[in-house]
Specification:
2 copies of one chain form a homodimer.
Chain A lengths: L3 E4 L4 E4 L7 E6 L10 H19 L3 E6 L17 H9 L3 H18 L15 H13 L3 E4 L2 E4 L1 H7 L10 H7 L15 E6 L15 E3 L3 H11 L3 E7 L3 H16 L4 E7 L2 E3 L2 E2 L10 H6 L11 H9 L7 E3 L1 H20 L14 H11 L5 H19 L7 H18 L11 H20 L3 H13 L2 E6 L2 E6 L1
Chain lengths: 486, 486
């Protein structure tokens, strides 16, 4: 099936043609691990998890690399200021890697809750200093960087004379320079648009490595160029990330890779759009910053209740990844109801009794869902198609339509494949039911007490034996009963 | 409370005195990630998880570093032959880091099943090449290593003239050399006992980095010296690992750190003993190699059934970590029964009715358990003490002994603290009960059908409403009923 991707480079949908089929190389920018995973992490993770699952379903062998930024990402994404991870470490009086490890673990746990598959390789920036140094050497050799006072900067103007700095984001270098408030000559940079490849560490900077230029640390943008080249090669298929990373991060990645390799490395750039909260941009200063744990527990002043991880996933999939998505209690509650209807219909499939003929055409479900998904990941249209089938499944169950065993098997397989394998939803409804078990057993034992009080020993014994067979051991006591699971 | 550790360096129990209380630095050798986690991984992980939990319970602030070996560990733990991870990658036609990531994920999942806490920092060897190169430079400068044909070797004989190579394992260098089958002059090494710090990569070697000596990769032993120094400092408190790592791995670590830092870095060396299977050493060639997944599923010819992760954990804790431990179906089944009795007693605590006086002395439980654990992690004695209390808890429940509310609260707190927080056990008995819920609901609805057939509408409605309150929605059908969870 033809698979089309909207390529940010050309601002249009293009047929996806992998470089080396059946292999596909996919790189996605992962988290900077200095805080708890939040809503802004969920959207790219789920978007590119859908892509990863879909490509695998289309029989591609995907090497999916999603990095972890644990060094070099300075405050305000700038070239000055404190390292985000190191700052958190200073505030918490911990070793930076202890902070990074803590938030890496939190991120991985959250991804598991959201049923996001682990990537094939999850490299850390601090674990690839040597690869970054090697790349800086090549960029210097090729003449697109300069050393200044122990730091190394990328020479954007020189690069722009031969290549096109701004091709991804559509920004124009002259305008960027004019709009810049940096005054040339006040920093180690020659020009305000230049960006750091290597920064000399100030004495109080704790994350530092030896390099040919100084004891220091790599610039933020460099890790992705170095690690994607290492693990996916000098050219690879797809690079994804949030739209907020398009400039400067991805623009700088293109410049770095082009300056080092003399050609571009990424063929398809994909960007997911942003999330808003009740119509506002999410931000710590706005008080509407919601972590995933807060969503899962409902513990935030903007939340009317807790929302299960699958509700979040479904909510995100219900919008196209290139549309903005607004979080509100109403929208999340609607997603929760919708997901519930969908999962119930999947369970209902088991209860449908087959007929000798079919009044429904089961071939349309998978075909239409796959067509939608292969049209630049149009998950909302695929989900609409699923709901069409929810209606039909309920009709089948009520006997208002008929289906043969063979068609029922196909319908069931296709439904499972789309809902669970590709969309990556999961039925958590019966997972956490410790209280339910206790409630049900107590209810049964009260019925039994009632029978005993009526001297209905047959019923009392029958209940006791049936429970015993299910592994529930009942011990009668003078004032009632005890029970426990075998 | 005084905490005593058996220090392998001196072959005796010593009072544990941390370098910088309340901080404790703990380093443990983690897995080489080229295969599924197996029984041999479970014992050190659980042993040092117990240590980590106990130290935290004693109010130490522990920085626990457990590394991941993803490069440099050659076949047969030697200085020649193929890299274990790279070999697996070649066989599976994958990028080495894809293999490493896969088995890292498998290892982490298994550790979660075993309720092993994640360490504070989990550094990868391939992520610390630059730190290893820096350490080699210092060892070369200090005169305890030499370059040979692009590789760098540690000069064991020269080191042994000033320090003592063999002090941890008790081996004698002269005997090692005499017993060696290596002929001097046939490799790049000067002497057979020397070991690689850096190896020049052969053309087919895929994991390779630039260094001052060659494009190559670090020797296996070096990563632990480099990463422990980086994250725990030039001197730290405790280094743990399996007894099989004592020589050559830990002996070489001591030599490297001493040669680089001019003093030893580890104060207490702890080694867990080995696991045997039905009395035999575990080995792939012996056909008795059991992965953790095989244990959890029972899918291995030597296993009569599946054993839950908590059974494995409890089984390992029932032996002292310095004793050998023999796995057999009988022993595992006994552990399963014992754990069940222990966890049931913990649940029984909730059902005990307090009296106005106590006939039991609840102060002994925690005191005796902690004394045992602080005596070089004597978990079997702590567990024996717990079983003493299982007996007493059952007597309390049967009314054969009495306890006040205050004592019951203390007993309950102490029992939870020892069993769950320190020993790290977990009650999984009610976790997976989807079938049980279905069975119980069906049982109740059959009782209801029975009531309906007797035209006992009151009971029928009562059951329906009670189920509804618990979130079980009943839908009557002409041929019976449907139900679903809300």
């Amino acid at each position: 099936m033809d698979f089309k991707i909207y390529n940010t480079l050309d601002r249009k949908k293009e047929l996806f043609v992998p470089l080396n089929p059946p292999f596909v190389g996919l790189y996605v920018c992962g988290p900077t691990v200095y805080g708890d995973p939040h809503l802004g992490h969920a959207r790219p993770a789920i978007t590119f998890d859908l892509l990863f699952r879909l490509l695998q379903n289309l029989n591609y062998k995907v090497r999916y690399v999603r990095n972890i930024t644990d060094v070099g990402h300075l405050e305000n994404d700038s070239d000055e200021g404190e390292d985000k991870v190191a700052k958190k470490a200073r505030l918490e009086q911990l070793e930076p890697m202890e902070v990074a490890q803590y938030y890496i673990n939190r991120y991985r746990d959250a991804m598991k809750y959201l049923n996001v598959l682990p990537p094939s390789i999850e490299p850390q920036a601090s674990g690839h200093i040597i690869e970054q140094i090697e790349m800086i050497k090549v960029i210097l050799e090729n003449g697109y960087a300069y050393e200044s006072n122990g730091s190394v900067y990328f020479d954007v103007e020189k690069y722009n004379r031969k290549f096109h700095y701004g091709k991804l984001s559509g920004r124009v270098l002259e305008e960027m320079i004019a709009a810049s408030r940096d005054l040339d000559g006040q920093s180690d940079k020659r020009h305000s648009a230049d960006f750091a490849l290597w920064k000399k560490a100030s004495p109080e900077h704790i994350m530092r490595w030896n390099s040919p230029w100084s004891v220091g640390f790599p610039g933020w943008h460099l890790e992705c160029s170095a690690m994607s080249t290492k693990y996916l090669g000098e050219q690879f298929d797809i690079h994804g990330g949030g739209m907020d990373l398009m400039f400067p991060h991805h623009e700088c990645e293109i410049a770095q890779s082009t300056a080092a390799l003399k050609h571009e490395s990424v063929r398809y750039w994909m960007h997911n759009n942003m999330i808003t909260i009740n119509g506002q941009k999410m931000g710590k200063s706005l008080g509407n910053f919601i972590t995933l744990e807060e969503l899962f527990t409902g513990n935030h002043k903007l939340l009317e209740k807790a929302y299960a991880p699958m509700t979040i996933r479904f909510f995100i999939l219900q919008a196209h990844y290139r549309s903005t998505l607004d979080f509100s209690n109403e929208a999340l509650s609607a997603a929760e109801k919708g997901l519930d209807r969908l999962l119930k219909a999947v369970s209902t499939l088991k209860k449908i009794k087959p007929s000798s003929e079919s009044t429904v055409d089961v071939s349309s479900l998978k075909k239409e869902c796959m067509e939608a998904l292969c049209d630049d990941l149009n998950s909302p249209i695929a989900i609409a198609q699923l709901f069409e089938w929810v209606r039909i499944i309920n009709q089948l169950h009520e006997g208002e339509q008929k289906i043969t065993q063979e068609d029922l098997d196909k319908l069931s397989n296709d439904m499972h494949e789309i809902v669970f394998d590709i969309l990556g939803l999961r039925d958590d409804s019966i997972a956490d039911n410790q209280n339910l078990v206790s409630g049900l057993v107590d209810m049964i034992l009260n019925i039994r007490l009632d029978a005993k009080s009526k001297k209905d020993w047959a019923t009392s014994d029958k209940i006791r034996n049936e429970l015993q067979n299910m592994g529930v051991v009942v011990k009668d006591r003078k004032d009632g009963y005890d029970w426990e699971l075998e």
